[in-house]
Amino acid sequence: MIASPHRKSSSFRKQFPRDELGSWSTLLQRHRFLLTALALLAFLCTIYLYFAVTLGATETCSGLTGTKKALCRLELAKDSVGNGKLKFF
From CA 35, how far away is CA 41, in angstroms rounded? Predict the structure, then answer.
């Protein structure tokens, strides 16, 4: 007789009792390091995004339209390239 692949074997039940698998405290204990690392990563990403948004490059040509906006962008492009060398800041 072929056993169904969906049935759990008795050795699995012996290895992990039902109350140990279903307990939230056990789950938290086993994955404390991963949860701490995830919380730290989320915190650092939040700080990074805050500063990226607040200190990011402001668009100086945002209030202009049409030809004036194109000329403003051209001036910004000329300012970023000085003496044939690209300036980043």
Answer: 10
H or E segment at 82? Answer: strand 81-82
Tell me if 64 sits within 8 A of 72, measured CB to CB.
yes
pTM, rounded to two decimals:
0.43
Going by C-alpha positions, the residue among 64, 45, 41, 61 that lies closest to residue 53 is 45
Four-CA torsion 8, 12, 18, 23, nearest 10 degrees: -120
Highest averaged pLDDT of the listed ranges 17-21, 35-39, 62-66: 35-39
For the chain, which residues make up each domain, given as ranges? 19-82
Q: How far is CA 87 from CA 10, 14, 58, in A?
A: 69, 67, 17
pLDDT, tens digit, 9 for 90 and up, residues 12-34: 556 656 555 568 888 888 899 99
Report helix, strand or coil for 48. helix
